[in-house]
Amino acid sequence: MRNNKFFNLYAILLSILTFTSAMFASPGETPRKIIVFQKSFSNKAAQVDLIKKTGAIPIKPLKIINGMAVYLPEQAQSALEEHLGAEIVRIDEDIIVHGTAPGGGEQPLQELPWGIDRIEADIAWGDSNGTMVNVAILDTGANLDHLDLIDNIKGNYNAISSRKSAADDHGHGTHVTGIIGAVNNAIGVVGVGPQVNLYPVKVLDRKNEGFLSDIVDGMQWCIDNNMQVINMSFGSLATNQAYHDAFIAVHNAGIVQVAAAGNTGGAILYPAKYPETIAVSSVDLADQLAASSARGAEIDLAAPGVGINSTAIDGLYTTMSGTSMAAPHVTGAVALLLATDGTLTPSEVKVKLKNTAEDLGLPTIEQGAGLIRADLAIQ
Q: Which CDD domains match (predicted)?
């Protein structure tokens, strides 16, 4: 009898421990998903209550798509699926995206980077330098104290850990940020829009990758904080409806979205493949498509992306290549354009940039409408 009691107690304790370990399992052990709710089921407290009752673990709300990022233990999946069609529309994968550039060597030289010169951004400064335009950079963050960035950084947000700053722990984001808006001073480099308001939004980690839910969270922050243009130098081959819905929502909010096409040498990555973005391929000093650049019918514009010198995480400067470097040239040009006419819609901005692009004589699947020309765009 005592053995039976002991066995029963042991079984109960084992089940509790098993449940507890599932509840607090690490992201690497427990699948991470996005729950998208019915429009009629929008109460955050009710959403959290439903998720917890099924054994899933809430991570963060995703207001922009009426969803919730969760850790979803296997035993909770079927419990949540019972609510499909009622409170829940669908359960999407929390896709992992990657920054679209490799690293490079240190080059702490003072110069006008060739990409800035090639798109004639310095000519455009006679009429516009991007003053007062709010530019968000969804990336690994930025070196918030870099002497070539600090005067233009007006705020930041960490979507991975909201109690921390968007300090860069990889370097990708710092480099991208400098291409857009490094200060026109006596040191280092200068960005396409040397007086834009920069807002680094950390959505990628020290490995230069991140979850879709953190990107959606960062996009919501951009809507809530009146961003006018977003640079997205990341991508994935995978997509789902939650992914696309977020970009539709940001587009409808009047924010221009610029996306790197990817370094696949072939297929364009998402989100660049979405029509709501401006998809950017990469060209070199000879105006030829970079061998690694993605190509396809969705390409809108080309921009310099090979051997680009910009700000580095260590406070100095470095050279990188990739569509990650091409996209911020277009983002900076968008800022210059919006500084001259802030009433333009995202669709109108795209049309204006494409109509004023320089034809490089490349196939449209490589260059889209052509090379971005900042000087012509603002005329």
A: Peptidases_S8_Subtilisin_subset (cd07477)
Query: What type of residue sits at position 373?
Result: R
CB atoms within 10 A of CB 163: 5
Count CB-CB contacts under 10 A for residue 39. Answer: 7
Domain ranges for the chain: 22-94, 98-377
User: Whose structure tokens read 């006419």?
Assistant: 341
Q: 21: pLDDT confidence band, cut at 50, 70 and 90?
A: very low
pLDDT of 102-150, one tens digit each? Answer: 544 443 445 899 999 999 999 999 899 999 999 999 999 999 999 999 9
Sign of the C-alpha dihedral computed for residues 215, 217, 219 and 225 taken in this order: negative
User: Could you give the count of Cα atoms lying within 13 Å of 331 in the half-sphere of its Cβ?
Assistant: 37
Of 331, 356, 347, 307, give the one whose Cα is nearest residue 200: 331
240 phi and psi angles, rounded to 5 deg: -155, 180
> Which CATH architecture is the domain 98-377 placed in?
3-Layer(aba) Sandwich (3.40)
Enumerate the β-bridge partners of residue 157: 201
The token pair at 341 is: 């006419």
Both tokens of residue 191? 């960005």
Q: How far apart are CA 369 and CA 281, in angstroms?
A: 11
Closest C-alpha among 206, 265, 264, 274 to residue 240: 274
Q: Which residue has the tokens 């795209």?
A: 350
CATH (one of 3.30.70.80, 3.30.450.40, 3.40.190.10, 3.40.50.620) for 22-94: 3.30.70.80
Which contiguous run of DSSP H or E holds residue 201?
strand 197-202
Q: What is the pLDDT of residue 29?
A: 66
Task: Quickly count: other Cβ atoms within 10 Å of residue 18's Cβ.
Answer: 11
Q: CA neighbours within 13 Å on the CB side: how many for 127?
A: 17
Closest-CA residue to 146 (of 181, 193, 113): 181
| Residue listed under structure tokens 């909770």 | 76
Side-by-side strand order, sheet with 234-235: 209-211, 96-99, 234-235
95, two tokens: 């896709």
Catalytic residue positions, numbered? 139, 172, 324
Sign of the CA dihedral with 307 first, then 272, 266, and 101 last: positive
Q: How far apart are CA 289 and CA 370, in angstroms?
A: 11
Cα–Cα distance, 280 to 259 (Å, whole number) = 6
